[in-house]
């Protein structure tokens, strides 16, 4: 659906307290712009769900990113080379082991 260009404006006056309340509600609803928040609330539009991400230890995040990069490099090399079936099988077993370990890590951290 193509959205029509907005050419009309509405000017309203609020005091400091009202502006603070509007900005707080805007932030809680996950909007970055007050105009988007007010338009959504005023026109009874669907408020998009706010994404809530769990906090992750920066060291763990860095290690997991490194593992992901290594797995991507392995996959790229496997796809670009002609390996024997036995070598491919070994690589698949190793990748499967990495995947199961990552799942265990994710489960242990999501339980916290």
UniProtKB/TrEMBL annotation:
InterPro entries: NikA-like (IPR053842). This is Plasmid mobilization relaxosome protein MobC.
């Amino acid at each position: 659906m193509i959205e029509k260009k907005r050419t009309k404006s509405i000017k309203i006056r609020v005091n400091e307290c009202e502006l603070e309340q509007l900005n707080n509600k805007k932030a809680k609803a996950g909007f970055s712009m007050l105009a988007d928040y007010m338009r959504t609330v005023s026109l009874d539009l669907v408020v998009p769900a706010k994404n809530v991400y769990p906090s992750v230890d920066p060291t763990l995040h860095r290690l997991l990113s490194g593992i992901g990069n290594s797995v991507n490099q392995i996959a790229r090399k496997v796809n670009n080379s002609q390996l024997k079936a036995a070598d491919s099988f070994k690589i698949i077993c190793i990748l499967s082991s990495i995947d199961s370990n990552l799942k265990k890590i994710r489960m242990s951290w999501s339980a916290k």
